[in-house]
Amino acid sequence: MNEAVAIVLGVIGADCHAVGNKIIDNVLTREGFRVVNLGVMVSQDEFIDAAIETGARAILVSSIYGHGEIDCDGLRGRCIERGLADIVLYVGGNLVVGKRDFVEVEAQFREMGFNRVFSPSADIEEVARLLREDFHAGVPA
Amino acid sequence: MKLLSIDIGSTWTKGALFEIGQGSLKCGVRCAVPTTVDDLARGFFAVAENLAGGTIVDQVREGRLELAYSSSAKGGLAVAALGLVPEVTLETAKLAAYSAGARLTQVLSYRLTRSDIEELQRNPPDILLFAGGTDGGNTDYVLANAQALSASSIDCAIVYAGNRSVADEVGDLLRGKNFLSVANVLPDMSNPNPDPARSAIRGVFLEQIVKGKGLDTIVEATGAQPLPTPYAMFEYAKAIREHVNGWEEFVLLDMGGATTDVYSAHEENPAPGTVLRSLPEPVVKRTVEGDLGMRVSAVSAAQAAAPLLPAMGLDASDAETLAAYAARVTLAPDTLPPNAEEKRLDSLLAGACVTQACIRHAGRASMVYTPDGDVRVQTGRDLSAVPRVIGSGGWLARAGQFKPSAWLSQFRIDEKRRAVLMPGRFEYWRDEAYLFPLLANAARLHPRAAALAGIGALTRSE
Fold first, then answer.
1. A53 vs B165: CB contact, 8 Å cut-off?
2. Measuring CA to CA, which residue among B384, B373, B370, B371 is closest to residue B418?
3. Interface confidence: ipTM more than 0.90
């Protein structure tokens, strides 16, 4: 029986960038998480369906193709509607089109209800550390 | 050596005596009597003795006559499926129940409400298949549902096939109930595991339901055990796929008075450039449409037909005529259409049943335009290139003029503008002698010979 904490991972929307997704899966699995990897082109409801069934404590959303703003908007609300009000939401990748200051992008996605926002150069081991910290704190930021 | 195969249906008890040769089966005499609902054994033995020319019990007991039989009488095998998320564990539980030959009476998800429990108490299924949560996954809903069931007066068999982490707690809560726990139907999100639940349902059928339906006297007399007819058909579809060259991929339509069953044998190998979403499906899949049938379910079938008629060149007045005809034949399920107009209406009903059942069984695909080019996103199975379709069940067996492709070819796009991945161009083969249910029984003992005999007996209709 695997008692590791489950986290749901996937690339949202019409985005089919598969390589980074596999790397994140690999690193976080090695870090001791039970990674439920939904792969590419995942809808908001698919993330939530998987999180409910697997009892996941976090959903990690990747977006690489620049449409993250549209794809991610409303995910927190949908989680609340479907009974996952307290789930930890992370998002990372090339979240917006064009060159915009990351601080601005981070603020925008936090406003949408994501607990943490990562740039394309984020260190996945650092993400693992933050996950543990957030789970330990028990309360989403 | 001879094999006696009998299928106890809801209206007819049918049988045939097969001659067992070297790797072959030959159908000899056949016989049918109305099913004796008050005592299924009476009709069974009437058919058996008529075919064997005398009493069969000693011959079967002494191994001089092989016996294989199935039953779908008295409502068949009624299962209620309970899962957590409708598209996830409930969907897996439904497929497991269908593969076990069940008819679904209720489908329930998330937390059982008081009305859900009351409905289960009012219309109890034979078996409640209780799923929810992957292993190590959600426990809240599962435990809440176990508590709700525990506090209820539900006394049907409960098969638990949910999150293993709380299987013991669920067992404790349901102590005193008719309870059985098996491996999870969905241990993780990418590996459905329907077989343990399927075996458990079959076991409960043999140990408990056979008696409730009055089949136990046949078991006691002959020592042979029955199967639910669709369970035997499911195994038969697997046998055809395994043993008959060129029949690795096919769709089998089994349309009756009450339901339309679709079986497909298909291995999913998505082409490059296709992204496959949704849970993986089994190679052989069965779905059952309880609202699509030629007699008992004719009224709902006529409703399902109405939106299809315009594309078939028919208008609103045809829909009204069809609805009126459906209302009439539902009241008299034995009706055979005497005149040309009624035959035409039966054809329309059949076309609608086949079409809607295939639409619901098949997967979907749509093109998504991404910044990196077009991507084809597929959910469910792609049966569009399946080369052969078989028609069985009373009406399809007889209907020499019926062309399913004329229907299926008209409904390739659904209301969300996705491609419906059901068979498009195919050979249509008819089970003209209506041997499939009887051969499905024979296949339990002689899978290869029965598979070859069934395919050999088909008539090419299209």
1. no
2. B384
3. no
